[in-house]
């Protein structure tokens, strides 16, 4: 937070507590009315403010003037310290904008942004703060990335795959082999797989037939190494 932002925050705080200076309003009713409202606070964003916090601002102002309303500068490098209420609010607001970021990365970003000093605030301190406010754990896990082919049910999509196998002796001659297989996209089960001495379509035809016999008919068959004009339509769309 730079000096201009600190001044903007202080002006906002001053504006809230100013009516309390000369007794123009009933303090208790005034603070109670403000507590339930959402305020747009410079730098921190929209949030509610507790009566206790506003009373602290008022007390600080009466003791030390306008300067006391500014958020504290982080100049105490090398000295361990606790997170102040302002620091906590600031970190929580940042966290809410990136709730699924790994905490280790979040901690490093706080350091890079100058929000905290690594020598002052430990990683475990940030962990405890986020846990206390339910901003870490299972409820904040990132939504799994959905791949191009990712179906939730078995036998919706089978993907054909070809892998180069070892050389084996066939009729006295070393021959390269190819493994052709189908993989169910949901369960990763292999309906059928077989080695062949050729990567031509005849091998895929055999694997397809055997897979259908053993595991039934899927909704979609996908083979990215076979062109449509060389594959019978029944293999393109089993339905």
TrEMBL record:
Entry GO MF terms: nucleic acid binding
Residues that span the membrane, as ranges: none
GO biological process, alphabetically ordered: DNA integration
Residues annotated as domain Integrase catalytic: 140-239
Top-level division of the source organism's lineage: Bacteria
Family matches, as Gene3D superfamilies: Ribonuclease H-like superfamily/Ribonuclease H
Pfam families in the cross-refs: HTH_32
Name listed for the protein in its UniProt record: Transposase
Species, as recorded: Anaerobacillus isosaccharinicus
